[in-house]
Amino acid sequence: MGSLNDKEAREKLDFAKDQVIGAIAETMDLYGVTPAAGRLYATMYFEDKMNLDEMLEEIGMTKASMSTSVRKLQNIGYVKRVYTRGSRKHTYTAEKNFFNTFMSFYCQQWEREVSMNLDAVQLAEKELAEIINDESIADEIKEEAKEHYDMLNESKVYYHWLRKLVASIRSGEIFEFLPKENEET
Amino acid sequence: MGSLNDKEAREKLDFAKDQVIGAIAETMDLYGVTPAAGRLYATMYFEDKMNLDEMLEEIGMTKASMSTSVRKLQNIGYVKRVYTRGSRKHTYTAEKNFFNTFMSFYCQQWEREVSMNLDAVQLAEKELAEIINDESIADEIKEEAKEHYDMLNESKVYYHWLRKLVASIRSGEIFEFLPKENEET
DNA sequence: AAGTTTGTTAAGAAAAAATTTAACAAAATG
DNA sequence: CATTTTGTTAAATTTTTTCTTAACAAACTT
């Protein structure tokens, strides 16, 4: 009856793993990561550590592809190199704490967005202010400049807020407001 | 001196606008939106409302491209249709409050991630539990199953947290913890 | 230091995505 | 109801991205 032999159990275990690997790989893909990198991270999630040759074997892609995927995953903080004395192969390990990957990915993304857009806004405001403060310019143009200026100025509230959000995630302060909880359902 | 005529002022104003449009379009692109959709949203950000023909003119792309871009922007909550009586052209308006676009985009993305991954985790845990509770299976396999089970179980803390984050953004509760502030610098 | 193993980079091939062209459908006007 | 205007969808093209092949560089062994 319900009892399994070892071969069936191994298949069941692999099925369970593949289920989660598929889901993670699909959502990673939503995060601007290539399919290869997504599958690689999802696979590494179930492994302690891997070297490039083990990745080839598991994913079935070339060494070059693994090399670039691993670097991309390192850049967004999903994978770290681990130094193993005695082996000349590079070995890597996946960050398994999703709070850490969340922090790494979004803080990086948001900081980039804030600084890029805020720079543009500052520059634009300077130009617009010159128009607004110039008496000789037609009212129609000055009014348009004023409208844009006010809108851009309002947007700064958002960018400052996003910056604070990043800081509170980085510091862990946010978990005082929204604690990590083990919900039982 | 330093005084501008109207033509120079108009150029200055357009330069200021283009600066911000460029920055927004570039970051939108980071958010999984096509270049066309990114440029379109950034352009609409400075307009009250637009119809498809005005978009063509401004962006210099085909009507089909605008149609699909607009729909994509509607899906992620960046653009809304606005009903203008008397005109048979469809008119649209950009959401100009970045708190709203933030909420719409990330809540949608995170909900999708949580439900997809949590579904896979639940299913995998059920399978793994069957292995763990089966006395007849080899210890080696059971131990691996147990390790995976514990890791997946731990990941649920993150998914529940992400769900709470979404709820607190949707409800506005998060702004009690991280207020919207007009910082002067 | 020569040879071997391992990892990276650059150029090319394959695959995927974005955009346009063109055919179609829907709605409004006369 | 025929005609015109507007918007959508499907097929084809262009562009971009991803992946592989192959040449190269770096590091370890002996």
From TrEMBL, chains A, B:
Q: Which InterPro entries match?
A: HTH-GbsR_regulator, MJ1563, WH-like_DNA-bd_sf, WH_DNA-bd_sf
> Record keywords: Transcription included?
yes
Listed GO molecular functions? DNA binding
Q: Which UniProt keywords are present, listed alphabetically?
A: DNA-binding, Transcription, Transcription regulation
Q: Does the keyword ATP-binding apply?
A: no
Q: Which domain of life is it from?
A: Bacteria
Q: Matching PANTHER family, A to Z?
A: HTH-TYPE TRANSCRIPTIONAL REGULATOR MJ1563-RELATED
UniProt family annotation: Belongs to the GbsR family.
What is the protein's name according to its record?
HTH-type transcriptional regulator
The uppermost taxa in this organism's lineage are: Bacteria, Bacillati, Bacillota, Bacilli, Bacillales
The encoding gene is: gbsR
